[in-house]
Design a protein that fits this description.
This protein is an alpha+beta fold. The protein has one domain. Helix content is 50%, strand content 23%. A hairpin with a 5-residue loop joins strand 1 and strand 2. Helix 2 packs across helix 3. The longest helix has 36 residues.
Amino acid sequence: MSNLQATLLISLLLLIEIGICIYVSHCERDIANLTSRLEGDEQTDTATMLTVRWPDEYGTHWRTSIHPHELADLIREQPSLAGAIREGAAHVSIHPTTEGTLQ
């Protein structure tokens, strides 16, 4: 491999890495925006739960219910969820609830 080819390959890899970093930062910003919108209205005592479903690389389907502010932590803790989000295979359902009401 010539020096020119090596330089071009390294440049391409750096551009891919920069693109991934930009994509991740946009995802984190979108998650923060979603979280702030879904945290609930304290005046009406409403809260929101999210049901998150996703397959992992072995075909096992996962499902969990969380509060919106826990979504970013779940994505960090579950690499398979991050992969499912990138592939469009993750599903999130929003469930508004009222405090004191059994669902």
